[in-house]
Amino acid sequence: MPRLSLTAPEVATTTAAITTSLTTACANLSTATNPFSALATAYGSAAAASAGITVTALAGTDADARRAANAARATLRNAFDAVWTDPDVYAVLLAATDTPPADEEEARFRSSALALMLRLGAGLTGEHRLAAKDLQEKISAMTSQFDANLNGDTTAVEFSIAELDGVPDSLLPLLESRGDDRYAVPLKRPTLTPTLQHAKSSATRKALYRAANCQCLAENGPLVDDILAARAALATALGFDSHAHLKTSAETVRKPDAVYALMDSVAKGAKPKFEAEISALVELKATLIADGGLVADDDAEPAAVHPWDLSLLLREHKKRAFAVDDEQVKAYFEVSAVIAGVLALYEHVFGLAFERVADAPLAWHPDVAQPTHRHFFLDLYPRDGKYSHQCVVPLQPSFFDAVAGSQRLPSAVIMGNMTKPTPSAPALLRFFEVHTFVHEFGHIVHALCSRARFPLFSWAWSIVPWATGCGVEMDFLEVPSQALENWVYQPAVLARLGAHHVTGDPLPEDTVTALVAARHVAPGIRYTRQIAISAIDLIMHSGGPPFVYPPWGIAAHSVEDLVAQVYAHLGLPPPLPSTNFVASLFHFTSYSATYHSYLVSEVASADCFTLFAHNPLDQAQGSRFRELILAPGATVDATAMLAAFLARPVSVDAFFDSVGFTSSDSG
Known about the structure:
The protein is mainly α. The chain has helices spanning 8-27, 35-49, 51-59, 63-85, 87-96, 104-119, 126-152, 189-198, 202-213, 217-237, 243-248, 256-291, 310-322, 326-329, 335-350, 431-448, 474-477, 479-485, 491-497, 509-517, 523-540, 559-570, 587-590, 597-609, 619-630, 638-646, 653-659, 663-666, and strands at residues 156-160, 176-179, 182-186, 375-379, 391-396, 399-401, 406-408, 411-415, 547-549, 554-556.
């Protein structure tokens, strides 16, 4: 594996070398003994070589190198995509099918590669092909710019210490001191979320909410419109009704109608709880104002629940209903102890083994250029210029290198933005961050357990330039990580993860019980919000403007209007005018028309965990999960993997039961 930290000149040199290697491989494909094997080796090797560019773009410390790497990502995405849209490559591969495949996995790779190429336009000719290629390159450039704008954004909202009344003292060292008892709150999750959860002043929370929902709006707002138009035009050129139809055609759901049916079912099941929860929060807000725990709103409806109230009210509800105070609980979740506990859990349940590389530099050492073990990195804390969401980035796919005659093993990194240490305290994770770490580490395990011999079947998603067509179906991608989240809420596991960072005392038993009980706080609100984002994503990628979905009475002339109409249909507190969260939604570029994959995956993951209900630490079931869900990668269809593990088709019952909905609620 190459070095992971590059200078701007090295980015240029590496980009040129990768594009040349792909072009040369495609040109020489017709003379290869096995064109499919030759293509897989060239593609996998080029993907591995691009790791330094991806890491530099997302987490590089030099601004010039980051800018160069972000531009290079678009160039590389075009180069990788060109492999799958090249009619000459398609012709060579099609002719090579006259020779029998070596085994079942190669047969699947052949059919998958040819189907992917047809879906992406390799069958187009003349002006149609050139037009599609131009659109693909424009989309690549615009989405890279969208991400670069977000990663480079350093917006922080300034407040006086009085305006931050209620915010924990432990948060102040993480804010930007501006002197004269004034602090700026960066729009990063470790600072934004706790401020919204604790600030008593409605004006403070409203200002933060507005800033967060206007983040990069000037730069990314126009890009959203242009990207939507280009995606729609490309889908039409490729023979699909819309971008949503193009994306869902490669998922287990196959078409948008199936997604809408699931969203309607869950929304109906959530509605009674949602309405009761909103009513309870209205009462809670009035109580807090009366008790002096909140400063009254300066509008005509001081007790109405606004979107900037939800974080605070849900935290307070959780504290009152379940006796869970995140500020006290975090003392038991020092980051290194959490990491050690999670690794031990995965070792026990899944039969894995982890070994830390002593004094590993940020750039790969030459000794591990051909690693004999699967590697992962943890980059957990926010910093200026770094990717500001939470995700796992694949660095090297799993594939057989026919030139070297050996298997190349997968590598990945967690790009995190969690609470960082301060001069007076170690990194203490809030419980939602513990949950997030377990989720992201589930992706790590899924990526590293792969034994795929072809890069098309290795764990990947669109954060990397080589991801087109690679990896499992998008609406299965989250299944393993969501299933593994369940372990956080098992008392036996939770007790292992938590110990006081000063005294070493274990997490109190009553706190363990409370955290488990509080898992599904306000599920009606949670899933209604998730459905809202999924619906906005799917509708805006189904054509328009106007953006329409007649069953919900949606007819919107802008994305901002679409957000407002979807929120109104579902009964969510309305967003502020002249805001647009889509302009700062990382999923807009990486999960386009597939945000619903979280919901689809959660249904399957809840069903999978039923096999651990009798014993969450069951090593026999853990071994089955590893072999049938984690290890195959995309060598098996997702529906077949799930059916093999469950010994039946997926059912929605476990999901509805887990969140307190019932089949009758869902209709």
